[in-house]
Amino acid sequence: MRSNVSQYDLIAPGSLAAVLNALADSPGEFTPIAGGTELMVALGAGRLEAKKLVSLWGIPELRFIEVSEDAVTIGAGTTFTDLRRHPVIASDFTLLAQAASWTGSIANQNRGTLGGNCVNASPAADSPPALLVYEAELTLISASGARKVPYGKFHLGYKKTMLRPDELLYSIQLKRNFSGYVSYARKVGTRNAQAISKVAIAALARVHGGVIEEIRLGAASLRETPARLVATELALTRRSVDAELGPTIAAARTALAGECRPIDDIRSTAKYRAAVAGNLVEEFLRGL
User: What is the pTM of this model?
Assistant: First the structure.
């Protein structure tokens, strides 16, 4: 049953300072809404619990991509279309550009924001695996100040994050130090477009002399939160990727099986997700 919109309130202060003041004056009372690609679906389905919303759309302080020699800082209000079209994102952060192209339809990409994708905290979201392997740093802000946190610590559990009731995600920073890495991204879903992932993997690796010096693996839909596959990374570091890959692949599959906790749901089964995740990691290793 659709929601009765008359039961909801929406304010649009129009500036970042005004939004932060509203959150500070009534902590926990207002739910921020940016592009609305998640909240409006819940509203239409009659399952949006939040009754008071504060709009972040159109606030210029949140929509930007700043490039320096060492890093790129992305405002939380930056849309997926902004990310797809930005030349430095395309050249330096191909995994994030790929994730942006996966997210919904063109209309969704025009409205959906990177910050919203993070804060919504879905374990199946498209951008978190890339942000995890790039070791993104988040800036969280409130009327009382700002703090920086590693994105890897942001998710505390299913749909739970480090954000306080009076805080917003302000920006996502990525270091520009991945030029020597091999990158890989695959999303498996029901369709090629407009599909929530059954499982997705984002990966980076640096190889020297046929040996993996460093490897990073980020995953969607394999745990209760977007996850770095740390145990699998450790199992693969210093492993050979020369012609005989059997022992390396076996080590990856064993470690992956031990740290993944996929679920059965309407989109897929835990057994299928675990099998496909192993196949994707193997595909990445063979590509090295």
Answer: 0.94
